[in-house]
Design a protein that fits this description.
By secondary structure, the protein is mainly beta. The protein has 1 helix and 9 strands, in the order βββββββββα. The chain has one helix at 111-120, and strands at residues 8-13, 18-23, 27-30, 34-46, 49-60, 63-66, 69-72, 79-83, 88-92. Strands 1, 2, 3, 4, 5, 6, 7, 8 and 9 form a 9-stranded antiparallel β-sheet that branches. The protein is globular, with a radius of gyration of 14 Å.
């Protein structure tokens, strides 16, 4: 229920499990660490996981990494795993029971912004 923050304005899902979630703005939500959500998030739902995810980044050691997938154990262990490529971030599933407030980003550059920034230099 709380995987996406407050501010979802619309979503679509097709018969193959591909989905799009639309937020009213790109923003950050605080869990055990901070997650950044782009205005549009895309992915593919399947049993116990979301793959091909784009539009969510997780902060780790002051760096932002794109979340590539999300997985839960079936049967549930009470843990949710975020695949950020180099590492899997593990959170308590209870953190995602209700949607979090999502506030406009306060930091200057996210990982997606860094590429855009340096491509202009």
């Amino acid at each position: 229920m709380g995987l996406f923050p407050k501010g979802v304005t619309n979503f679509t899902i097709n018969e193959d499990g591909k989905f799009e979630v639309y937020l009213d703005q790109a923003c950050d939500a605080k869990f055990e660490s901070e997650l950044h959500y782009e205005k549009n998030v895309f992915g593919q739902l399947s049993f116990g996981q979301i793959g091909n995810l784009s539009g969510i980044s997780a902060q780790d050691l002051f760096l932002w990494f794109p979340v590539k997938g999300i997985r839960v154990d079936v049967p549930s262990s009470g843990v949710i795993y975020f695949d950020v490529g180099v590492v899997r971030k593990q959170f308590s599933l209870s953190l995602f029971e209700t949607p979090r407030e999502c506030v406009a980003a306060t930091h200057p550059l996210h990982s997606t912004d860094i590429f855009h920034h340096f491509s202009k230099v």
